[in-house]
Amino acid sequence: MSLDVISVDDFSHNQLDYIEDPFSFYTLMRERRPAHLSGTIFGGTWLMFRYADCARLMKDERLSNARSAVPLRFLPAEQREEFADMLDIYGRWLAFHDGAEHTRNRRQANRSYVPFTDEHLEPRIQRLVDGLLDQVDPNGFDLISQFAFPLPAMVIADVLGVPVEAHADLNRWTDDIAHLFGSTSVSVEHLHRTRESTRQLADFLASEDNARLSRAEGGLLHQLREISVRGHRFSERDVVAQAALLLFAGVASIRYLIGNCVRALTDVPTTERDLLLHPGTVAPAVEELLRMCTPVSFVGRVAGADFEYTASDGTVLPLRKGQPLLLYVASANRDPEVFDRPDELVLDRPLPNRHLTFGIGRHLCFGDPLVRQTTRIALSSLYRRWPQLHVPPQEANWNNNLGFHGFTSLRVTSGG
Ligand code: HEM
Hints:
The protein has a single domain (16-412), classed as CATH 1.10.630.10. The strands form 4 sheets. A 5-stranded mixed sheet has the order 1-2-8-5-3, covered by helices on one side. A two-stranded antiparallel ribbon has the order 4-11. The chain has helices at 16-20, 22-32, 51-59, 77-83, 87-92, 99-113, 118-133, 143-148, 150-160, 167-182, 188-206, 208-217, 220-226, 236-265, 270-273, 279-293, 329-332, 368-385, and strands at residues 35-38, 45-48, 63-64, 141-142, 299-303, 307-310, 316-319, 324-327, 397-398, 407-409, 411-412. The protein is of the alpha+beta class. Helix 9 (150-160) packs antiparallel against helix 14, helix 10 (167-182) crosses helix 11 (188-206) and helix 14 (236-265) packs across helix 16. It starts with 15 loop residues before the first helix and ends with a strand. The chain contains 18 helices and 11 strands. The protein is globular.
């Protein structure tokens, strides 16, 4: 494919041509234009495709994560005001803070998470997985709606100590927010819906019933309220915001990851898939799936000040304060400078697998242990029950958003 065929100028996160096969586009960009200034995305955004640049820029403290308002750049200035209220909750997310404030909030959240050890979580996740798989018809079922869709919302609700039965609402609310942050263009209608979903999610997390339940369970929602580190406590609005962040960050991402993994594993011989079933081989296999199948295609930043950055190909980026950058981790994960056979799924690829799926540096994903554990339990349970599980040929139904790359439905069957 040539860059004339897939035009760089048309590139967006919401266009099916790129969603169906972003990897050919990434390959071309890594080779020919690894640092590209898009005039169309957010009115002027640098897109970075090589591992070296993505890793370096994610750690560069001259870049800021204060980017809660970036999606509103879709709108003319006078309309942005109308939606400013919904930024209050996103602006409180620890993910969007820098420097000392980020360190303090992250430490506080880490301490709240401490009771959730692997031993504590494993049987709970296994129970949720088994409960869902017991209900499907193994001769043919939709992996997404019947399994990958409910599971992550249930797991995170369980961690928070709120009712797992709320999973459908949690999915709906967080999907609206995920669409906002993963897209490069959204409609005003979508913004109205997202504002309403954000309000409903916040009301749910702030409700007295859920506060009581979480306290009784020793859940994370309760811990976020209770734990004080060096005299610092989260305010009530901060508690709700951090809990909403965990749901936003974890629900859609794990859903699409499971679908992408099962799709990728269909082309792998059963004997190789068995690597997922054994304690000695499962860890490298899961890391490799994380490398190849990540649904989170990019990480965003904005320039914290005016400065110049020289990219790995020598391109000089004259960054202006506030200018957005999109760092394509899904492209970095297939960079031949770092990975042998970058486009192949090598389930016994030696550790450490240096993928950037969870980012790198101070903003490294907060939920990575939960993702690894949920993915391992979900996949090993599927293939232990049905070793021949596969995806028959079908038309792919993609989520219309490269930011959360994956399928909205995926028919699977356990037949030979
Ligand atoms: C497939 C699943 C997931 C992927 C691929 C993923 C990926 C990422 C990435 C790339 C970042 C770094 C963002 C940056 O550098 O700005 C991040 C941050 C974060 N993730 Fe995840 N994530 C996943 C699931 C989860 C889950 C399940 C949770 C929580 C329950 C979670 C919570 C967070 C939080 C709170 C941050 C912000 C951390 C900070 O800024 O200090 N993520 N994630």
